[in-house]
């Protein structure tokens, strides 16, 4: 049996490589002679840089930037092997994992560090950018990024706005006179893992704000602030982006990259799968295993498992998926082509315990799934019992 393992990271606990290794360890307890093809993947969030840099023989560049709460932070980006393309993760400059749960406040966090990474890559000669938006701690519509690249976001008295999503409620004018001129020479692809609009019940603040620390009242305030922002993107820049699919990604960073970088938003998994040559890999295997930290209704909206299943369906291969946890609406993934889905957490526990036990939990559920698969293979489908 030949098995492809194409998993994203389990956020805050395991990298994509660690997820794949744990699943392989569990399966090998049952299928010791199986051949495994490891394809660590990403959909625009954490792991995008390492996946593309590794696949192209590129390099990592370490940079100090403004972190999500304004203090200096160690960050990085990648340059592909041909030296032409910069690969950047918003999460590396303004990621949720850079903050403790007590520090998370999307009313204050900024994407300025993303703009600083872009400027550094421009200095290195890059004019093609792949920017992954997943995993952010921000809700500022990439306003901080724009400010780092020379845009001035001014209040009614002509003062520069302070950092954070709430400050956008005071936006009165956008001034692009000092915007970084080299951006006009660039092609920017944004690896976007969701298709949410900027505003409303399916927008950036309502859907993603709570996981970044926003209370219900803060969600409403952030949505109202982004509405002001959207108004000025259209009025001052001629960029009507609020309803564009993906505009709400990463706290509205999708909208900001569309407006300020003239970006092309693409499903992040599509970019990664092209780099990996994933379709050809899946043609050669018998079983495909995928997964991510939480599998729920959002999974089918551009996340790695749905992308893997789409390719697997095209080449006629069965798919099973593992998640650290399953949402009540996880059954939606069956319509995307995932035959079976399993949660790795086996007992009631705290979030801290689930994160700490992620690897042994995943090994255990992978082993048990493999055992069930072997039992099914052993059963006589004609109803005459199991073969010896």
UniProtKB/TrEMBL annotation:
<dbReference type="InterPro" id="IPR018197">
    <property type="entry name" value="Glycerate_kinase_RE-like"/>
</dbReference>
<comment type="similarity">
    <text>Belongs to the glycerate kinase type-1 family.</text>
</comment>
<dbReference type="InterPro" id="IPR036129">
    <property type="entry name" value="Glycerate_kinase_sf"/>
</dbReference>
<dbReference type="InterPro" id="IPR018193">
    <property type="entry name" value="Glyc_kinase_flavodox-like_fold"/>
</dbReference>
<keyword id="KW-0808">Transferase</keyword>
<keyword id="KW-0418">Kinase</keyword>
<dbReference type="GO" id="GO:0008887">
    <property type="term" value="F:glycerate kinase activity"/>
</dbReference>
<protein>
    <submittedName>
        <fullName>Glycerate kinase</fullName>
    </submittedName>
</protein>
<dbReference type="GO" id="GO:0031388">
    <property type="term" value="P:organic acid phosphorylation"/>
</dbReference>
<dbReference type="InterPro" id="IPR004381">
    <property type="entry name" value="Glycerate_kinase"/>
</dbReference>
<dbReference type="Pfam" id="PF02595">
    <property type="entry name" value="Gly_kinase"/>
</dbReference>
